[in-house]
Amino acid sequence: MIHITFILLSLVTMYSAVEIEGNAVNSFIVCEAEMYKKLQCVNATQINIISANYGRTNKTECPVDDYYTSTSLPNVMNNDTCFNDISSSPYLLTYCPDNYYCTVYANNEFYGDVCEGIYKYTEVKYQCIPFNS
Predict the structure, then answer these.
(1) Cα separation of 86 and 104, whole Å?
(2) 3-state SS of the chain?
(3) Would you say the C-alpha torsion 100, 86, 35, 81 has a positive or negative sign?
(4) What is the pLDDT of residue 46?
């Protein structure tokens, strides 16, 4: 069995796992305010992206801080059904698969502003699989 270790770069990183073909499927979250975080596999494994979204699919992930609620963006959490499937993003396809780490971004410059005025996050579902699988 493959042992998977995660380097948590933030307290808001979410981790969950299910099994697909004997390898855990993990969920990695990067909040828009963080801009980016490093996704990493260890123990001679590489990243295999299952899916990736940028936007907002629930109201509890990546809570909004006081800055957003005190400015002109009082409704930044109201939409939980705006997202863009970024699984085939040229960046993700180039830098994440077949590598043991990659930087995951959560900003409009990479994926477009799919829901203007809404506080967004990137969620990547991935596996750490042995190299040459």
Answers:
(1) 11
(2) CCCCCCCCCCCCCCCCEEEECCEEEEEEEEEHHHCEEEEECCCCEEEEEEEEEEEECCCCCCCCCHHHHHCCCCCCCCCCCEEEECCCCHHHHHHCCCCCEEEEECCHHHHCCCCCCCCCEEEEEEEEEECCC
(3) negative
(4) 93
Residue 1 tokens read as 């069995």
Query: For residues 61 and 29, is the Cβ–Cβ distance under 8 A?
Result: yes
Q: What is the pTM of this model?
A: 0.74
In the numeric block, which tokens belong to residue 113? 């502003």
Within 10 A of 65 (CB to CB), how many other CB atoms are there? 11
Q: What percent of the chain has pLDDT over 70?
A: 71
